Amino acid sequence: MSLSKKIQAKRQEKIRAEKLKKAKTAAAGVAAGVAAGAVGGILLAPKSGKETREDIKNASKQAVDAVSDKAAGAKAKAGDVLSSQKEKFNDSKAKIKEYLDAKKAVDEACEECDVNSEEVVEAIEEAAVALEEASEEQK
């Protein structure tokens, strides 16, 4: 990539960053305008100030209760998932320990018997051949 292309890419990147910043600022302004309009609409409604304050108080209590209920539900679900995962982990851990103990026992037994598996296979093959010859001789 040539130097001029690198400079051009940097300029394009800078322009994109500026556009993104402007878009974020515009979005924040729109959100603030909507919030101000909602508050103004509530405060300028044909209800008395006391009724409006009571409505705002009730709405905020409902919002707090809803958030608390959702948080409690999420906490309970997280606790259930955590306990389930702990149980699965402990089961896996027990199975691994069982496997390692069995492997250790087999390794110890193999050391004690001092017999090679190839020797056992050869002996079985020789016995099979001898049985076949014996059965042919009897016919």
How would you describe this structure to a colleague?
The chain is an all-alpha fold and 139 residues long. The protein has 3 helices and no strands. It has helices spanning 3-43, 49-113, 117-138. The protein is elongated.
What's this model, at a glance?
The chain has helices spanning 3-43, 49-113, 117-138. With 139 residues, the chain is an all-alpha fold. The mean pLDDT is 83.
Label this structure with key terms.
139 residues; mainly alpha; 3 helices; 92% helix; elongated
User: Low-confidence stretches at least 5 residues in length (pLDDT < 50)?
Assistant: none
| Main structural class | mainly alpha
Radius of gyration: 40 Å
The largest β sheet comes out as: none
Fraction of residues in helices? over 70%
The SSE order reads HHH
| DSSP helical segment count | 3
Residue fraction in strands: under 5%
